[in-house]
Design goal:
two-stranded parallel sheet; elongated; 7 helices; alpha/beta; single chain
Length: 192
């Protein structure tokens, strides 16, 4: 079985948002062999980013090995309830199929951001990742280039040096971040 790799974004159904934000759902169970590439990810649900999470554990089991603990950390009342949801999401799920249990902690909620902070409390790299996910076709090539670099550096200073060779162009990077933040708020993707 070939693994599927998870990047910086993890998608969940909108119905799970409240369970995740309340701490009742601290895992997601995915059919197949799934390998996260990063410890931290942006969790999306209901068409918008809802939290920044840190992956705390990744386990692999067969469907028939799932137990009550697995069901509970995934926000379900019982293994039977969990299996019903897996079948609803994936169709035919067999007892010998492999599942990946990705456990996580919410490190930052994105539903109650800090209005007094220049970027609502988001790191430049996280804001850039969210903007690229939702706005890539609404911004210029140069803005995409700035945001792409920010996803790697997470630093306005380093991006300014990487793209312009000087710290004196940080204002261009900041202006891009302010622009995409305003667009994300105006579109209702983030709430300020």
């Amino acid at each position: 079985m070939r693994p599927k790799y998870l990047g910086r974004h993890l998608m969940v159904k909108g119905e799970y948002i409240d369970l995740i934000l309340s701490g009742k759902k601290k895992a997601t169970i995915r059919l197949g062999l799934v390998k996260p590439k990063y410890n931290e990810m942006i969790l999306h649900g209901g068409g918008r980013p809802i939290a920044k999470i840190k992956v705390t554990n990744v386990r692999y089991k067969r469907v028939k090995e799932l137990d009550e603990r697995d069901a509970k950390i995934d926000g379900f009342k019982s293994v039977d309830d969990l299996l019903r949801h897996l079948k609803k999401a994936y169709g035919d799920v067999k007892p010998d199929d492999i599942v990946t249990i990705i456990e996580f902690d919410v490190v930052q909620r994105l539903d109650n951001l800090e209005p007094e902070h220049p970027y609502l409390g988001l790191e430049p790299g996280d804001l850039a990742r969210i903007a690229l996910r939702y706005l890539k076709d609404k911004i210029s090539e140069n803005e995409v280039k700035i945001l792409m670099d920010l996803t790697r550096t997470n630093s306005i200073r380093k991006t300014s040096i990487n793209l312009y060779g000087t710290l004196n162009k940080r204002n261009i990077v900041r202006k891009t971040l302010r622009k995409v933040l305003k667009m994300l708020i105006d579109l209702g993707i983030l709430r300020g």
